[in-house]
Amino acid sequence: MAYKYFPQTEEDIQQMLKVAGVQTLADLYAEVPAELKLNRDYNIPSEMSELEIRNHFQALGDKNKQLVCFAGGGAYDHYTPSVINYITQRSEFLTSYTPYQAEISQGTLQYIFEYQTLMADLTGMDISNASMYDGATATAEAMMMAVANAKKKNKVLVSAALNPAVIRVVETYAKYHGVDIQLIPTLNGATDKAALEAELQKGESAGVIIGQPNYYGIVEDLTGVADMCHAQKALFIVNAPASTLAALKTPGEWGADIAVGDAQSLGLPLSFGGPYLGYFCAKEALVRKMPGRIVGGTTDHDGKRTFVLTMQAREQHIRRQKATSNICSNQGIMTLMVTIYMSLMGPQGLKEVNEQSYAGAHYLYDELLKTGKFTPAYEGQTFFNEFVVKTTLDVDKLQEKLLQNGILGGLKPEALVNGQWSTADGQIMFAVTEQRSKAEIDKLVELIKEA
Amino acid sequence: MNNTFYGTLIFELSKKGRKGYSLPANEFKQYSIPAEISRQSPTLLPEADEQTVVRHYTNMSNNNFGVDTGFYPLGSCTMKYNPKINEESASHPAFRGLHPLAPACAVQGALEVYYNTQKILSELGGMSEFTLNPFAGAHGELTGLMIIRNYHIKRGDLKRTKIIIPDSAHGTNPASAAVCGLEVVEVKSTADGTVDVEDLKPLLGDDIAGMMMTNPNTLGIFETKIPEIAKLVHECGGLMYYDGANLNPLLGVCRPGDMGFDVMHINLHKTFSTPHGGGGPGAGPIGVRAGLEAYLPNPQVKKADDGTFYVHCDKDSLGSISAFFGNYAVVLRAYTFLLSAGKENFAKMGSMAVLNANYIKESLKDCYELPIQGLCKHEFVFNGLIDKSQHVTTLDVAKRLLDYGFHAPTIYFPLLFHEALMIEPTETESKDTIDAFIEVMKKIAKEAAEDPEMVKTAPHCTPITRVDDVKAVKEPKLTYKAYL
Amino acid sequence: MAKVIEGLFYAESHEYVKVEGDFGYVGITDYAQEQLGNVVYVDAPEVDDEVSQGEEFGAVESVKAASDLMSPVSGTVVEVNEALADSPELINEDAYANWIIKVQLSDKSELDNLMDAAAYTNLCAE
Hints:
The structure holds three protein chains of three kinds. By secondary structure, chain A is an alpha/beta fold. Chain A has two domains: 116 residues, Aspartate Aminotransferase, domain 1; 258 residues, Aspartate Aminotransferase, domain 2. Chain A has 13 helices and 18 strands. In chain A, helix 6 packs across helix 7. The termini of chain A are far apart. Chain B is an alpha/beta fold. Chain B folds into two domains: 256 residues, Type I PLP-dependent aspartate aminotransferase-like (Major domain) (Aspartate Aminotransferase, domain 2); 120 residues, Aspartate Aminotransferase, domain 1, CATH 3.90.1150.10. Chain B is 33% helix and 10% strand. Chain C has one domain: CATH 2.40.50.100. In chain C, 19% of the residues lie in helices and 35% in strands. The radius of gyration of chain C is 13 Å and the shape is globular. Chain C starts with 8 loop residues before the first strand and ends with a helix.
């Protein structure tokens, strides 16, 4: 039986076998020891037609609930312009691979160059790599780079107000890479700067990682942190959700050496957690220590401005076991999505997205406080588009009620208590993006009032 | 693919006052971002209307070559056809908007896809369980090595800090080991390119955490001594890691689990047809044999007795290697392909790929130096042209191929041969396409003898001519600011 | 044919040391620069860093490869060839004139572990 992804006819196969010097397809495996051969059918489903596959996915899709999203925690429900899906489906982009052959890959190289420019600009840093898997792994890479840069120090300080999902990944990498991670406690939801300074002054730290806005949505005052780090020759690493970079004081403005984070908020669909994109930007002096691929401008033989993968020799695929990173790809098509998003939105669009997200979140916050069932979790702190409130309500029951009404209500925030992560009772964390209308927020508040 | 070079950058199309988006009016005007937390620096973000943006990226795409453009025999990368129905599944509206932290009861369909994919991969790999969390092959390798280290640490055996890797291995293997805190011990190849068992034996000791191998190896040769190798490594207390980059030729014939491997990764973007996307996103699921399941990274997706699916975090896990569930939309694509092919077509997939590779190898070995004779699997390596008198290199041959509308094979890898040209056709290429490629390769060999200068200065018909990569490193221009 | 100079000491990893009194000038051989092709970057240690025979002390990078530098001798780095920071291609022009580091030798008997010009010429010919 023919199959649509196998083009060879019976006649082709016979002719090719003859050239290959064997009688049958099985003979192509003559050298494989008999005891290793499966010699049975796979125990997996039988082939399905396209129609059956569509129906199957529809049936599976019906088991998912389509909810109005007030959850964040590192993944945000921003708007994806229609152009993005349309362009990224162009198979010249989608079905190509890493642009090894620059002469037939200028499309890929050019959009990566645009991406590097835009991301460096957004973070206020000098340079950007060609992107990484996600924000958490990009942060782990920054941690390893800090240690490699310091040569003789192997401790990295991490703010306990950084997203715990990111901290977990950083800790996993650190454990196996032989890096000592020390968490810096929080004070009213933000990094305790006095504790940070005391720890830094021991002179053992290669780097400091702080989230901005942090996990609780708080915009931290990072004044003086860069100087504290640099006095001890530690790299200052800021992890920021990419969309907010257009509105908030940038990692560059705070004096960071490295800016990392997730760029999902720049127009990438939630897609149950991935694929997203991790960005990695740094000061120019660190370029040769930066993980991942980099595209640079050059000229071709005729003098035309062109682009090419560059500084590859610093990469793992040549340095092999001296590597401090094993990244050998980038997030490709997600990089294109983010680049198109920024091109369409421009400075004004990103400003509006951030203003609306900020304003919607603050409106919800005020409305929740007005119900009398909520109080601020972190009095006096400035938050952006995500916040934590304390409540007298049973959070599990509240989430359940909202779910029944088609709303993905807030998340239960995690916090570090006596060295253990746990979700605190009586706290809930909401995120608002430009996609949430006043009507949706009002409905959420009404449902909560009934609870 | 269009041979007219486009080359404009979005910044050069920007004009103040243009707009490429639309948003609803702000309904909460009473709130605005305080100045003291606001960004002060100006930005380079372009201002462009929608059509300008669409044309810009469309024109750019015309300077790109993909699998849909033509034959892409990039060795070790398995550039097979990317079915379009995969894309339909990946952007299915019932999956696209799901938040990764939504409660399990609201994402049962998503978890079912995930679970089913784990199960099918387990059967194809001969493993007990799979995780789909790793984002790419290299990430899978790192995760797999963490599992191996975690296994030894949990047994209280802390001295196993070395990993054995063949000298022909993918460059990523030693890099992943270094990131995982393992010291690399290299084992040599024999003249036929397979692991030298006699060289391996003295390396085995109580400091060995395990061994990484790919089979067939990077030369496309099946490692027939794998049962003996696995036995030796197991006897010394180590685990066997299978680099799944070369899994494609085994489909329908044999399984890594049955060869004695304990941990393996699969590249969904190679073997299971998800698009390479210009470099990503891929996915590098990791499978383990029975007894190692708990060590898989968190979160883990499980099925309850009542048939529902849930998310589990195991205390024995190596930890988390991703914030959420990995590249989920890539899993949707791969699952679609798994269903489409089914057991009937997976049974034949490997042998169709191997047939194509052997056919090319035998057809070209009179023009190109074939260092290792005999049957290859999904790929094979030529060591440049047989006639080296004109000093036409592998790079020159690769560049000349571009003129004829083919992507180049992988070049200068593996490092065992100076002029390596590594060809992998995959099973989805027709005999007609392959014959055309063979003709062109023969023609280039002839050109190299008759007009070497022309080959050395190739390509001539691509949108741009050879790029100056030395200049790119010496005068780095890494953002558009370098041109301002 | 790569140039090999009489009177220098050579390591199997293709570094040389030119000894003057208690000091040694360390660089990569002409053969090594030929193999690497266009050198684009030299990652050198800092003054006062310690180096040991057979141990890595830096790296040279060309467009196609990055290669670790292994010190042929032990001692303390007293000078780094600053010219290479801006013009790494000097190594391609003359690998022997453009040493990478100057080392105060801590153990001159180590030189016995290295090759002379004749032995190194044979190594390159293999």
